[in-house]
Amino acid sequence: MSLISLGAAASPIAILSALPQEQRGLIALLQQPQKVIHANRDFWLGNLHGQPVVLALSRIGKVAAATTTAALIERFGVGRIVFTGVAGGLGQGVKVGDVVVATELIQHDLDVSPLFPRYEVPHYGKARFHCDPVLSALLFEASRNALAHESLASHGYADACVHQGLIASGDRFVCGADESRMLRDTMAGAGHAVMAVEMEGAAIAQVCLDYGVPFAVMRTISDRADDSAHVDFHDFV
Ligand code: ADE
Fold first, then answer.
1. Choosing from 98, 120, 200, 223, which is the catalytic residue?
2. Ligand 1 within 6 A of 116 CB?
3. What is the 3-state secondary structure (H, E, C) of 164-215?
């Protein structure tokens, strides 16, 4: 399978989102947009602020996200991957409207115990996958600048802030106060203090590690993964 030629010498940066609502604003900004269909997915090639980029939807869940990530690397030759989307807040003080920039990702629903320690990905010797520190620092700075923008106050997020920390991924929309408390406490008991929960990041992290591609993840908090998470999620998105 051949790489799509993007003309420019630099490898493009991929910007991944899970949902069309999360991606729409990026497509609107894309210069010289070109849509390529591959693996039953739409990939948008073009330029953003003079940088070659590929925009894609991971779709929802770890398997779909892994497929999209592998396609971005194998077929489109991306050199870096950034994920932008929403997540449920789990950590103390992580509220709707805040941003969490991941330092590491973990799969909260992976359990091959007693063969391997709980959460450990077999044959990788670890449960947590590190994000690229340079990309993550850029996301942190960009998020802080965006939240300082005065128009956010008019949307009711005047005190929104940016956190950095561990994000947990799993094939489950966490929607219950008891469930989210149990998830947070169980993971904390195993030494994993989780700030936010979503459904794709750790899969992207694992594929990126396999290919040696730097990646980073930023998530805006749409809900608190509690009893009203499904309503809050829809309202926020
Ligand atoms: N993405 C946004 N909110 C979420 C939640 N509560 N659980 C899983 N993924 C999410």
1. 223
2. no
3. EEEEEECCCCCCCHHHHHHHHHHHHHCCCCEEEEECCHHHHHHHHHHHCCCE
CA of 9 to the centre of ligand 1 (A): 37
- Contacts of residue 87, defined as CB under 8 A and 6 or more positions apart, other chains included, come to 100, 167, 196, 197, 198, 219, 220, 221, 222
The domain made up of 9-236 is a member of CATH 3.40.50.1580: yes
What confidence category does residue 147 fall into, taking pLDDT thresholds of 50, 70 and 90? confident
| Known catalytic membership, residue 223 | yes
Residue 198 annotated to the active site: no
Q: Ligand 1, closest atom to CA 174?
A: 7
Cα angle 87-140-65, degrees, rounded to a multiple of 5: 40
pLDDT value of position 75: 97
222 lines ligand 1 (CB under 6 A): yes
Question: How high is the pLDDT of residue 153?
Answer: 63
Strand pairing category for 80-89 and 215-223 = parallel
Ligand 1 binding pocket mutation candidate from 95, 107, 167, 223 (most atoms within 8 A of CB): 223
**Does 229 contact ligand 1 (Cβ within 6 A)?**
yes
The 10s digit of each residue's pLDDT in 72-114 is: 999 999 999 999 999 999 999 999 999 999 999 999 999 999 9
Annotated domain spans of the chain: 9-236
pLDDT of residue 18: 85
